[in-house]
Amino acid sequence: MNKTMLLMLAVALTACGPSQPSETVDTLVANPERIKEIQRLCKEDRTKVGDELCLRAAEAAKRRFFGDRPEQKSK
C-alpha cells in the first residue's frame, strides 16, 4: 500500500510543471506597461494567457483609472 502511494505521489509531482510567477493586481497597478502588455496578449490569445491573469490586468487598469476613491453609499 505504501509503495503504491509513493508511486502515485511521484507521478503527481512530476506532472506538475514550474508555475509562472504570480502577478497580483497590486503589482500590476504599479507597472502600467505590464498591464498594456498583458491586455495585448489577452486580445491575441486569451486561452494561452489565461482568464485569471487577464482579469487581474483588467482590475489593475480599472484601479489605475479610477484611483483609490472611497465607495459611495446608496441611499
Automatic annotation (TrEMBL):
PROSITE patterns: PROKAR_LIPOPROTEIN (PS51257). Keywords: Signal. It comes from the Bacteria. Residues 1-21 form the signal peptide. InterPro entries: Eex_IncN-like. This is Entry exclusion lipoprotein TrbK.
